[in-house]
Request: fold
Amino acid sequence: MRKFSVVLVLSLVAVMAFTFAAVDAGAADAIKIGFNIPLTGDNPDVGASSKNAAEMYLKKNPKVEVGGKSYDLKFLFDDNEYKAESAVKVSTKLITEEGVLGIIGPQASSQAVPAGDVANNYATPMISPWSTNPNTTLDRPYVFRGCFLDPFQGPVAANFATDELGAKKAAVLYDIAADYPKGLAEFFKEAFEKIHGSGSVVAFESFTTGDKDFSAQMTNIMMSGADVLFTPQYYSEVPLIVRAAKEMGWTKPILGSDSWGGGDLMGLCGDDCKGYYFSTHYAAAGAKGETKAFIDEYTAAYGKTPDDVAALTWDSLGLMIQAIKNTGTLSGDLKADRVKVKDALASIKQFPGITGDMTFTPEGDPNKCAVVVKINDEGKFEFFKSVCPK
Reply:
């Protein structure tokens, strides 16, 4: 009986050793990419767009070859709940527990800025597809982005308000508690007053995340004599602001930013948003080439046109995978390989993204153009003009 028990134990040990060896071998043949995205919370459409684009990418590219060796791609999707503290926890988990080679996201600046600190401290490459706040990549060699910056977007909006909308006085309404709208509101104000002089932003009104009543702010804006209202808010907030403005009798232009293009803006806003403009990353209507191919495939898969977040996630994934390929070889030492991927990302030149060609600056930011779109009578985002860095 005892002999049988010993044999059984030895057999179990052998089986377990074989199993663990197989798991380790499988892990060695896989490249794990983590996604720090909001699948719940205030803007779940942002996370859904990210995940949709990623899953479509993985279906088309289940494997990646590096240095003559084929690796399985494995994507891990973690919910940051659209909260800064959750984004920090997600990045920490992906890096220290899940062992990812790199991270895509967070998308919004309020989560990307603190999560970027985690990625940089753990020397893990991270690309935020949609965060335009300068602090996301500032002094963080491991953090990159797939979009232009607000110091560029602010003047784009200010110049458009001046040249195309004929505005001489502007009003701004923004969320003072969130990094992205606060920063962009300030960049717009600085740029507009550089054109028209100090005091030409005649109303600079703020609210706090979660507010639903904008009547007090709109009263001040109505009394200011502004020719245009600039509001750099997210798709879930814009309809509330637009309706509040119209209820107060506002009939002048309302101008938005790239945050308008992430999520189901028109499903929430409908006719109220038609005729307005916003600066963004690409225009789906009238797209050609690889961009059109992406749009058609995404629309067929998910029954809707891909928003900016989806397109930028696709490009950010392409950048990450290209960098992994450019390392030439992966050693299996995760820390060393993360350094190699970071260095390869920093060296990318003229990456052909569907939102435009990209070359990273030393700060991890791409040189790329912005697009101004008009919400046409059909509720589609129609290309109006392109604005490139000088």
